[in-house]
Amino acid sequence: MNATKVYVIDTVVTEPGRAREFVDSYLREYAPGARARGMTLERIVVSPPVWFPDESNTVIATWVLDGAEGWWAMTWKGRPDPAVRQWWADVDGLIVERTRSTAAAATDLDRLGNV
What is the pTM of this model? Predict the structure, then answer.
């Protein structure tokens, strides 16, 4: 049986003209810690697909975790880590708004367990 995957999706609307700076910081400063928490970066996409000098972009980073166990492990490592909170505080000036969501393939939901 294939392992189920849980996706963590960070969606960030950047300040006008700051998308490239945000992505560079995310990859350089946030991603190594995320990988240490068991996350695997699947992709980062930028919408619209142009670095606007004077408009906002939406940056969507999709991470993959190994099932519910991977999600819980990541959560318990990340929540008490002051470096995570500090990084988000440090880039706050680059961000208009941000959300984080979690998801899984519909075909995996039964294997992930019931509430």
Answer: 0.89
